[in-house]
Hints:
mainly alpha; two-stranded antiparallel ribbon
Amino acid sequence: MNSEPTCALRLPRGWAWSLAALVILLGVLVRLRHLDESTLFIDEGESCINALSILEHGYPADSYLGLPVFENTLTEPWPEHAEYEFRDTSYSARGMAVYHGWLPLYAIALSLHLHGIGPDRLLEVPRVQHAPHELRQRIRAARLPAVFFGALFLLVLFLAGRDLHGEVAGLAALTLGAGSPKCIWIAQQARYYSAALALSTLCAWLIWRAARSGRPREHVLAATGLVLLFHTSSLAFAILCLAGLTLLPRLLRHPRWKRSFLLAAALLTAGILPWLLWTGYLAHSARIPMARTFLEARDYFLYLRGVPELVAGAAAALGLFTLAWSGRKRLPARLAAPLEEAAGAVGWLTTWTVAGYLGFQLFVPVASCSLGRLTHNLLAGPILLGGVGLGLLARLVGPLLAIPLVGGTLLAALLASGGFLTRQRRNPYESEAVLQVVEALRAHPFRADTRLYSLPYQHFCLTYYTGLPVQSIAPVRRAFLDSYAGEILILETTSRVAPPQAVAIQAVASAQGLTLGRPEARAWGGPLMRAMVRAELAPLVAEVREDPTPRPSWLDAVARDLLREEPTWPQGRFDYALDNPALFTTPARLSLDEFWPRFFYAFVNPEERIGPGLNYAGRLAEARAWILPSAWVWLHVPARLDASGADT
């Protein structure tokens, strides 16, 4: 079978592979650049703890450092446990991770092992086990597997595009993938996203080849790829199976389809069924709430309404191609042949993209129904469609015009993507805040009975950085916290207030007769934010501490006025119903401090667990609160004393 269409516009011999190698190398270097620049975000920390549990148990287990692992929305009561009110449905009854695929977790575990990073020890008296200079290495080691899968994705883009419509199509798709900020960002995260993107693209190509040739070897390759994809992302696997149903008529036309189909089915069964039985996945899957149960018909179009220009552009491009293809018989053979050859590839890639859009919302669990993650399932199809489209354009206009037209279109597309050759986002504020917490933990004299909790954003990351048994506060029983006699540390790893914007600071200051310029108002944003937190905490806790930095006499008064107005500010808040319409069914413009209880308690009366109903609210009166420079809060509840004054 030819590796590319017969009438493809060919580059000089060897040029395509040389150019592809150069672009892949550049893409990898861009992905390695600043890989350890920021601390791990919360989901990356989860993957790292899963990987460390592999090094500890041999598989991703439901416990680490003697603590059960909590990573998701709480849905199941745990009545028999004294400390925890809920168990996490991300893990089966056999104590194995079933919510996420294992292949990326094993890749992270291997990288950690090769970097000399192993599971932490559970100490009698807790202490930070990792020196400051180790943090960057731990971050880099966790993210390197994503770069590897990112390189695989780029290679597959070239090979698939080349096979679908020639060398120009392959190089165009490769260039789009290499320079896309979203693709770079995915390949810099210690998550399953990069592996899922690479393997789903590989499988889409292999399925297309199998349907086109009907040969047993192609079916074996496709089935092998699907097994790997299942153990990476069962969601991406389900999407490709849904899309693959449309190729069945083409498959059944091949004379040896039964043999090929049986071989593929046997491989899939052997590669997936034993794992399903061993982990207890089949019995467990019904316990996970699915998004489709909570989505209304209009919610399925919410993502499209947010990107009207992309929808319009895609519709126009496909409409133009369909119009040209419909009139191909009236065109010269030189123009009709490329359209004929591109039709099958365009149809398959469009089908896969549509299946990715609908399948994500049909098959995703409710807690993961973030429309930001939907984008991950929609990247590869449009990138390959763009490559095929540019390859088709090159063949239609001829060699002389192909280079300026294709090159100019590629450059325009990359520039329009929002940041050519850059990762998509950084969060220096959070990185600095996390490091402040780590250093505070390093200096704390822990007791043997210390219970260490954080808000369920950062407990995984803090455990990974420090080797301390940090637990999420969300699943803990209020009765346990109220009665526990030992030392309790609770880390509020997000600010209690939204950051005041310069215009709000200026307005409040002006009302008090104080004139502040815009730069001066910005400079006072941090101290005012800490003062707002201090004003909120002071009536609730025994003592509030802060670094003893001088502050002007007007600052506390301005902070109190800002605090009264803060609930009405749009800044620092996001409407989470626009991101997860399954979990937030009504508009919900929330700060991160307001978001976490509504997310983790979504199915267990969140309104009753906020404010005075918060599980640790009863211990605040005993707590000493330390406001860190980031405005995150360290709550220290000392051990209680018995009647003689000794520790209980």
